[in-house]
Model the fold of this input.
Amino acid sequence: MSSHNPHDLSRRDFFKIVSSFVGSLMGLILGLPLISYFVSPALDEQGGEKWIPAGPLDNYPVGEPTLFTFTLTKQHGWEKTAQSYGVYIIRHSDTEVTVFSNVCTHLACRVRWHDDVSEFICPCHDAHFAEDGTVISGPAPRPLDKYEYKIEDGTLYLHLVEG
Ligand code: FES
Done:
């Protein structure tokens, strides 16, 4: 028989489609660890301590609260979970910064820095925090949480305390 039998052709097309679908699915699956690698690069874990590299200190302009976000992925057997974090970094000098969590101390919405009024404001129930993290108004029961940090070779590291 000729190889131009329409049945053969359609079967070949079918396999082509299936294999390209499986191929892209595999790419998707194999691609996942790569994505999380880029999302949370160089995570250093020693004795339960996690220091998150936040890049060169020079990335952070002096006196301007700057948002830095990162995602940590955790593997428990087959299960992988990702948690995202946001912090505001305020650089004061070459050796001193303040690092605030952007999690509102009321009910854990994310606060945002508003340059026009120089306050952190929570969109959920309108809590206002000053540049030093203290509560100005609204239902928040305490100031914004602070992260410990260290600066090594010009790179800023944040100390992650997981709760
Ligand atoms: S969660 Fe921020 S004010 Fe309620």
Observations:
- Residues 103 and 109 are 6 Å apart (CA to CA).
- Confidence is low (pLDDT under 50) at residues 30-44.
